[in-house]
Amino acid sequence: MTCMKRMQKIFIAAVFISIVSACGRENNRDSNGAAKEKNEQKFDTRAEEKDANFVAEAIEEKYAYIKLAELASTKSSNREVQDVAQQLVKDQSESLAIFQNLATKKGIEFPVEEGDKTREKVNDLSKRQDPDFDKKWCDEIVANHKKTIREFELRRDKSKDPELREIIISDLKGLRTHLDRLNKLEKNML
Predict the structure, then answer these.
(1) I need a labelling partner for 141 at 20 to 30 A (CA). Which of 15, 19, 92, 109 fits?
(2) Nearest to 55 by CA among 116, 112, 103, 107
(3) How far is the C-alpha of 85 from the C-alpha of 3, rounded, in Å?
(4) Residue 117 belongs to what domain range?
């Protein structure tokens, strides 16, 4: 093989690796940010855009709850934490499917995984040991539920979309039930 052919193959390989690497970076970037950008371009009114962004954020939050709950169900040695976490995985997976169906029906772009902040939290929590893990996990998931409930209540009150409002109202019931159970769990840890 001549030196020129070798150089040509190396060059082609380098270009191929660069393209694959660039695609990987694009796929790894925050999928909620990408969804928001596409939704801003897609919807005509500000109200539609806000509803679309809410749905995309809700989907990302569902992924976050599922990831955090999966971590607790495998890492915690506290049976009560494991039970709550397994229930969260089940309920949030069902809720995720409902929001994804709505998004698909309405042409809303949405993320396909949890966001970067969630990955960082999962990474941080996974390094902790019991009972510190249980306490930190519970604090995190309670704070997330409180924030999500506030966001859902605001969108319920502002949205003009009856289908979205119905989904939000239904989801709020589950979120409040989880928060009550998590608050009891947190008190038992003290």
Answers:
(1) 109
(2) 103
(3) 60
(4) 35-189
* C-alpha span between 38 and 32 (Å, rounded): 10
131-140 residues labelled b (16+ CB within 10 A) or e (exposed): eebbeebbeb
Q: Is 12 helix (H, G, I), strand (E, B) or coil?
A: helix
User: Which pair of structure tokens corresponds to residue 10?
Assistant: 């190396």
Q: Is residue 75 part of a domain?
A: yes
Q: Count how many residues are written for the chain.
A: 190
Cα Rg of the chain (Å, integer): 21
Q: Which of 174, 182, 175 lies closest to 85 in space, CA to CA? A: 182
110-143 tens-digit pLDDT: 988 888 888 888 888 888 887 789 999 999 999 9
Contact 142, 52 (CB under 8 A): no
pTM over 0.85: no
Cα–Cα distance measured from residue 95 to residue 148, given in angstroms and rounded to the nearest whole number: 13
Classify residue 52 by burial, with Cβ atoms within 10 Å: 0-12, 13-18, 19+: buried
Q: What's the token pair of residue 98?
A: 């409902």
pLDDT digits (tens, 9 = 90+) for 84-108: 999 999 999 999 999 999 999 999 9
